[in-house]
Amino acid sequence: MPQPVRISPSILSADFARLGEEIRAVDEAGADWIHVDVMDGHFVPNITIGPAVVKALRPHTAKPFDVHLMISPVDSYLEAFAEAGADTITVHPEAGPHLHRTIQAIRALGKRAGVSLNPATPAKALDYVLEEVDLVLVMSVNPGFGGQKFIESQLRKIEAIRGRIDKLGKPIDLEVDGGIDQSNCRRVVDAGADALVAGTATFKGGPAAYAENIRALRG
Ligand code: DX5
Ligand code: ZN
């Protein structure tokens, strides 16, 4: 069964010149996790932050760091992100051929392992690995940028994966990322999601608006 909805603000939409303050502000505003988007300009057409920044941000909150790695290759960087303070490390099967090995490596580092599926990747990509993961992240935009439009077809994928998780009977988080806002969050949760990433929808309006923005996403 789904767990109560967790909100994971994506700091991609925060003020990068004041990231520590921004993380403290969303923590106080009620964020459950902090979503950190790591991009390499190769697997996705954008470059963001690396382990040194994650490490610098770690003292600013006690909330779990939900680290979304959009990089290829990924295995050689897992240890650095684990040491920097990631709690969940999420990887893409589209980024490399050895997903099972990558999941094992994340768990060997003592971290929660997540698998993220691009919009065109079928739920079937979870075959043979679902029981090994702590989190599934459904991308509802093509990864690379904040502020894109939610892709409706992903609702069917969320429903399908919810069914598989419930059948397995394990407390695997089902998180959705991309274009989530106050107008569609209810439908995403009704489809079976129990964690929502929100960049634009969290950070719009500046710090005074964060608490209300996050509250509204809980539906
Ligand atoms: C996209 C990232 C998302 C993005 C979400 O590649 O993985 O986490 O920051 O931003 P919004 O909520 O603005 O779509
Ligand atoms: Zn993300």
Count of the domains:
1
Radius of gyration, rounded?
16 Å
CATH classification class: Alpha Beta
Q: Outline the biggest β-sheet.
A: 8 strands, parallel
Q: What is the count of helical runs?
A: 8
Determine the CATH topology.
TIM Barrel
The side-by-side strand order for the widest beta sheet comes to: 1-8-7-6-5-4-3-2
Unreliable spans are none
Label this structure with key terms:
binds D-xylitol-5-phosphate, alpha/beta, TIM Barrel, globular, 219 residues, binds zinc ion
Can you put this structure into words, describing what you see?
The chain is α/β, with parallel strands linked by helices. The chain has one domain (6-217): Aldolase class I (TIM Barrel, Alpha-Beta Barrel), CATH 3.20.20. It contains 8 helices and 8 strands. The protein has helices at residues 19-28, 51-57, 78-84, 99-108, 154-168, 185-190, 200-203, 210-217, and strands at residues 6-9, 34-39, 65-70, 88-91, 112-117, 135-139, 173-177, 195-198. Strands 1-8-7-6-5-4-3-2 form an 8-stranded parallel β-sheet. Helix 2 packs parallel to helix 3. The protein is globular and about 45 Å long. The model has no long low-confidence stretch (mean pLDDT 98). The structure holds D-xylitol-5-phosphate (DX5) and zinc ion. D-xylitol-5-phosphate binds at residues 10, 12-13, 35, 37, 68, 141, 143-144, 146-148, 177-180, 197-201. The site of zinc ion (ZN) has 6 residues, from strand 2.
